[in-house]
Amino acid sequence: MASADDSALIWTRAEPGTRRPKFTRDQIASTALSIADTEGFAAVSMRRIASELGAGTMTLYYYVRTKDELIVLMDDAIMREVLIPADEFPAHWYDALTAVAERTWDVLMRHPWALRSLQNAPTGPNAMRHFEQSLAALAATRLAATAKFALLAVVDDYVHGNVLRAAEFRAAKTSTVDEEVIEAAVHFAESQYATGEFPHTQELFGGKDPREVFPRLIGAESERDRFRHGLAMVLGGAARRLDLPLR
Amino acid sequence: MASADDSALIWTRAEPGTRRPKFTRDQIASTALSIADTEGFAAVSMRRIASELGAGTMTLYYYVRTKDELIVLMDDAIMREVLIPADEFPAHWYDALTAVAERTWDVLMRHPWALRSLQNAPTGPNAMRHFEQSLAALAATRLAATAKFALLAVVDDYVHGNVLRAAEFRAAKTSTVDEEVIEAAVHFAESQYATGEFPHTQELFGGKDPREVFPRLIGAESERDRFRHGLAMVLGGAARRLDLPLR
DNA sequence: CTGTTGTTCGTACGCTGTACCAACAACGCT
DNA sequence: AGCGTTGTTGGTACAGCGTACGAACAACAG
């Protein structure tokens, strides 16, 4: 019988506090978050967080059992941003699901390291709230529970997959790549075209500067608009399959 | 002007070999892959790979500049598995795209650590072949290049997002979680329901053993079938938007 | 058989997460 | 007010990581 203080789950283990400690779990998590946002997830180390807080490294281990637990806290802090204020919650399932998906996208794109780095943690309180909101979006439909589950899964999959790629794409655009690397890449691509193995790719890129071709292929839309169009495709296809009213 | 041996890109840098070296890049990459498959990506260290090969650790650095380059090789080795034999390539765009997506799914699920761990590497030869196959799938359609790009992106996003979740789900089912952790999680969930903040979630899970409820929510379908149904939704929605013939 | 140089790998450095334990300080009790 | 308990802090140490450096070995040309 696990008492409150030796629980295996951080959510059921009481935060220390009978004699005012210097820090809080929230404080530690948000410090970790801001390091990750400004310098990337790799820069988040226990020593780094501690020195940011003006504490000894091992002090953190009084608030958290392992670094993984700290990551769980980071995860939950991010999920908090995903929640939609109750008074902004749309009534129609399509609008509600769109709002949830777009907000999730916005948040994950603000923390592009998150999807790759956060182990999919045991569901914390804010992840639960997010799930509740997702169910609420479909409450007015008369879908069976399994159909709701399937629909939410498809939307979630698309959102996460899109962020995974879009975040990386944005990073690639932002970071200054050595001219030398680009040149080598172009050279490599051309040598591959020369094998004749890549007719379609060559038709698109062959002989041209990829930095000029790429934007044209992508079109004038912003990343976010491209995401929204993809989302519309997904929701449209789902509505058709599940016989849901599109509007 | 980068000569063949000091190129910034591993693909354009010649593999050593004027005096027969002990190993090949392929050998090293496949050793790394098998370690990752059997013990997880975290177990892949330079020392570990080397000892598996009976070599000194630093020997690997003769074949590869950094561990990241080795990861690029792993990535490309995985992409090789994704390629569809030419004689199995379906003619109709829907079937072709489905085949590419399903094969990608199968491979990524065999290497569940891959999506999370492999930096999205600069496109290697097998990634190029995969992209060529994706374009080939849409060659018979008369879509504009930008539309092809958008469609492929949506499908890719869904596939990757689904693998991200499904792989983790499978891992969760496989690994033996401490009874203690499950108990703590159930306890935590119940205490959250008690706040009244989670009516929809509670209706689904409240008071029941989640290990019994979950399979029922998911339904009788296999992971793979659930993926295929989601894919059909996505392709259906895309076909509608892009005015493509579904069959 | 020798000189060149491609190939191997031992040592060392700074980084990581964290186990262990000594020291400090806040509070309840007398 | 002073003492004892114990919640809280954090120093030291250890095994592991990626990899820079450079010495040693060995394959081949002459």
UniProtKB/TrEMBL annotation, chains A, B:
<feature type="DNA-binding region" description="H-T-H motif">
    <location>
        <begin position="45"/>
        <end position="64"/>
    </location>
</feature>
<feature type="domain" description="HTH tetR-type">
    <location>
        <begin position="22"/>
        <end position="82"/>
    </location>
</feature>
<keyword id="KW-0238">DNA-binding</keyword>
<dbReference type="InterPro" id="IPR036271">
    <property type="entry name" value="Tet_transcr_reg_TetR-rel_C_sf"/>
</dbReference>
<dbReference type="InterPro" id="IPR004111">
    <property type="entry name" value="Repressor_TetR_C"/>
</dbReference>
<protein>
    <submittedName>
        <fullName>TetR/AcrR family transcriptional regulator C-terminal domain-containing protein</fullName>
    </submittedName>
</protein>
<keyword id="KW-0804">Transcription</keyword>
<dbReference type="InterPro" id="IPR001647">
    <property type="entry name" value="HTH_TetR"/>
</dbReference>
<dbReference type="InterPro" id="IPR009057">
    <property type="entry name" value="Homeodomain-like_sf"/>
</dbReference>
<dbReference type="Pfam" id="PF00440">
    <property type="entry name" value="TetR_N"/>
</dbReference>
<dbReference type="InterPro" id="IPR050109">
    <property type="entry name" value="HTH-type_TetR-like_transc_reg"/>
</dbReference>
<keyword id="KW-0805">Transcription regulation</keyword>
<dbReference type="Pfam" id="PF02909">
    <property type="entry name" value="TetR_C_1"/>
</dbReference>
